[in-house]
Write a structure and sequence with these properties.
The protein has 3 domains: 11-95, 3-Layer(aba) Sandwich (Rossmann fold); 124-184, Dna Ligase, domain 1; 190-356, ATP-grasp fold, B domain (D-amino Acid Aminotransferase, Chain A, domain 1, 2-Layer Sandwich), CATH 3.30.470. 28% of the residues lie in helices and 28% in strands. It has 11 helices and 17 strands. Helix 1 (19-30) packs across helix 10. The chain is globular and about 60 Å long.
């Protein structure tokens, strides 16, 4: 971002009105900054806590024009912002992180190619554009393997595992018969992530490595610090910093990694935004991932994250949100509810953070 840092009372535009946008706006408010959220759904959770809202589709150019005129910088809470929207806004107001980064992280093939080009390990992969290419890719990668759509997959959506005996054409149909990437199945010991922030001055600050437990492909529990050796933790943070620097990133990103037996690391995915596995930082660190992101896009210095103790974050998914009353009675538990009216299976409704002495 060119120009001077924002002053308090400046307005940050946020594309997307989910819980991440909500928590970004709350962090901005604590710093004296205003937020204007643009999202298509009238019941967007972020709408309840911001200075101004625009309820419009992401391709509504008139609404985007008004939105751009009202804000000093634009950021986003989810990575599937239409490229045309980001490009349209970038011609009118600074957009951070750079929309060009979206083009890489929205495409699993481009993302894996980018990471591999940095000399960082990933699962073996091959592009699959049509069913005829799947057989060749399987011959190269082997089984088991995971067929994933190149775009728009999250929480286990848009992917199918191909094992011995699996009909490849059935897997192709299962993911919708669209451009895919075939990845070798990784026999990992654990999944971890590094949430990192990079400021406009190029400074990078990484939070401690987080260990993640998924259920039904959805993050359920995050624990910090991860059960890694000091060397593996340092390498995980180094990988995140290299990615942030090579992107010329501004804001918070998360790098998800597989930990293999022996401690080797493979990058699984990059999320160009604040991330569910970083929610523990709201109560467990001296600066949260949300405040770091706001600081970065505002051109402010990043905070030095200091963890308060051993931390556990538990997602409240679907009907589990009804447990909030029980959690309110647990000493030391911090309850965060996202204000979502409709409860659905698999929907993240809130989370609980617990901090323990080490």
């Amino acid at each position: 971002m060119s120009g001077a840092a924002l002053e308090p009372q400046a307005t940050i535009g946020i594309l997307g009105g989910g819980q991440l946008g909500r928590m970004l706006a709350l962090a901005a408010a604590r710093l004296g900054l205003k937020c204007h959220v643009l999202a298509p759904s009238p019941d967007s959770p972020a709408f309840e806590v911001v200075h101004r809202v625009t309820c419009a589709d992401y391709n509504d150019t008139e609404a985007l024009d008004r939105f751009a005129a009202d804000v000093d910088v634009v950021t986003y809470e989810f990575e599937n912002v239409p490229a045309e929207t980001a490009t349209f806004l970038a011609a009118r107001v600074p957009v951070l992180p750079d929309p060009k980064i979206l083009a890489t992280t929205q495409d699993r093939l481009a993302e894996k190619t980018f990471v591999g080009g940095l000399g960082i390990g990933t699962a073996a992969f091959a592009a699959v554009g049509q069913p005829a290419e799947l057989a060749a890719a399987l011959a190269h990668i082997g089984r088991p393997a995971v067929l994933k759509t190149r775009r728009y997959g999250y929480d286990g959506k848009g992917q199918a595992t191909i094992r011995n005996g699996t009909d490849p054409e059935a897997a192709w149909r299962e993911v919708g018969g669209q451009p895919c990437i075939l990845e070798a199945y990784v026999p990992f010991e654990r999944e971890v992530s590094v949430v990192a922030a990079r400021g406009t001055d190029g400074n990078v600050e990484c939070f401690d490595v987080t260990e993640n437990e998924h259920r039904d492909h959805i993050l359920k529990v995050s624990r910090v610090p991860a059960a890694l050796s000091k060397a593996a933790s340092q390498e995980a943070r180094r990988v995140a910093e290299v990615i942030a620097q090579k992107f010329g990133y501004v804001g918070v990103l998360a790098v998800e990694l597989f930990v293999l037996r022996g401690g080797a690391l493979l990058v699984n995915e990059i999320a160009p935004r604040v991330h569910n596995s970083g929610h523990w930082t709201l109560d467990g660190a001296s600066v949260s991932q949300f405040e770091q992101h706001i600081r970065a896009v505002a051109g402010w210095p990043l905070g030095k994250p200091i963890r308060h103790g051993r931390v556990e974050m538990i997602n409240l998914i679907g009907e589990e949100v009804a447990d909030y009353r029980r959690w309110l009675s647990v000493p030391g538990a911090c309850v965060h509810l996202y204000g979502k009216a409709a409860v659905r299976p698999g929907r993240k409704m809130g989370h609980v953070t617990r901090v323990f002495a080490e």
